[in-house]
Amino acid sequence: MATDSSAMRFLTVQEVADLMRVSSMTVYRMVHSGEIPAVRFGRSFRIPQTAVANIMGSVTSDELGEVG
Question: 9 Cβ partners below 8 Å, 6+ apart?
């Protein structure tokens, strides 16, 4: 079976937490509040990689504060 590069990729809560450098509980709160979309697979959630990219891309330097 050939892989399709346009296929949607899903990440686990822990993978998202690692990417965003937050706790997994923070990601769960974001999922439950609707701030980040997620799909439930059995007892766990999977989050579209595109949603994570959109959230991380929408953070401005003002929200991050001055660094340095």
Answer: 48, 49
* Exposed e or buried b per residue across 30-56, where buried means at least 16 C-beta atoms within 10 angstroms of its C-beta: bbeeeebebeeeeeebbbbeebbeebe
- What is the reported pTM? 0.74
- Which DSSP state fits 39? E
Cα→Cα distances 7→10, 29, 44, 45, 51, Å: 10, 27, 21, 18, 14
User: Is residue 42 a contact partner of residue 2, using CB atoms and an 8 Å limit?
Assistant: no
CA torsion sign for 21, 43, 38, 2 is positive
pLDDT digits (tens, 9 = 90+) for 21-67: 999 999 999 999 999 999 999 999 999 999 999 998 876 555 555 54
